Amino acid sequence: MSLAIVHSRAKLGIQAPLVSVEVHLANGMPSMTLVGLPETAVRESKDRVRSALSNSQLDFPGLKRITINLAPADLPKEGGRFDLAIALGLLCASGQIDARVLADYECLGELALSGGLRPIQGVLPAALACREAGRSLLVPSDNAQEAALVRGLTVITADHLLDLVAHLRGETPLSAFSASTPATAEAYPDLSDVQGQAQAKRALQVAASGGHNLLLFGPPGTGKTLLASRLPGILPPLSEQQALEVAAIQSICGQGPLQHWPRRPFRAPHHGASAAALVGGGSQPRPGEVSQAHQGVLFLDELPEFDRKVLEMLREPLESGQIHIARAREQLTFPARFQLIAAMNPCPCGYQGDPSGRCTCTPEQISRYRSKLSGPLLDRIDLHLPMHNEPVRLRQQAPAKPDSATTAALVAAAQKCQLQRQGCLNAHLGLAGLREHCTLNETDANWLEQAIERLGLSHRASHRVLKVARTVADLAAVAQIARPHLAEALQYRQLDRQANQ
Questions:
Q1: Is the preceding omega at residue 262 within 30 degrees of 0, hence cis?
Q2: Is 50 exceeded by the pLDDT of residue 398?
């Protein structure tokens, strides 16, 4: 037949919309036209496909007028991912392959001039969409392990175009790829490495249990970075669905999800990061650090050193768990459900409140330094905890308690309680959830209202206090929030207290 349709997938954020590669051969002046909003790399596929077919001893219908349409026409197409589908479409349209065989397949892959198959980025989102469509997937061998992370999907792989052609003709059938178990990721650093800092460890446990954001402030060398790096190790393991979400983002970023499967991400961008690097963007929008930290931890060290405009862009993802990027041609939404752990010094020199008295900062300098962080941003950080230098012990010491395993068990129990009660972690409760699950008796409610008024907390900050108190009660396996839980939650708003003194 002179018309063939082959299924493929585009890359649009973390989505993989279906693209139908329509190939038509007609009589007339020999030519090859590619339409359907292709970008430069896609337009160049005409030459790659021509050479790949010729060098594979397959007939290229060069005496025909060839029209290739990538539908839908209004969807931007980029990269070399459509090379394989175009080549197979030409072979079907010229009668070298039965078009009915390809009806149950989707094809992804870039072609070398020799006919070899080269890997592409963003295979995992396409594999997920292919499974939902009920088709099998044809990909280069180098993409096989990644595509096979999707259970229930038949993945056919090859190193050369001729191997796939022989398979589709029924001459040399290829077996479905059998996935091997990915290598176990390296263990997280253990919490027992941190000596002392009992209050900070408790705050880290509370943050992990309820999914709360945490700000650590104190002099240099108190262990802020050390503590932050231990948070992923006390969080529960990712579910399969969460692991696939994380791996899909890593796939479109070209990071190789198999290297970290199924590990929670820990991202620590430098304070010189631009807005596009932190939240995503660019002429062809890509995920930023907030999306690459999805289902994991985003650690921002030296928080006031970040550009204030960049930090303000964190407000939306901190509230909604998503980031929306709008461009003239397209609008994309990336997931960004992360835990923010931030660290800062209490003043420009870093030693305010140090017993040695070496801080030389004036009140104006301290105020100017802290004013780099806006109130709305601080309101979205549930726990504010000061850290102090503790006596140095150089002698060999036993591992500190608690360790990550013990803390992780407590965190898992608290999160299980929250998910059974309300279907989400406490940090993600809405107003209706607050009214239903964070109730107080009249005496405690009056006491909390007075404390909020003394501290000058906003409505948002007061809601955060209630959520943290709910988490503290869950860690104690108590159904009703009591005053001790509220008092501990208020202790984690010490930056607010200092600002209002």
A1: yes
A2: yes
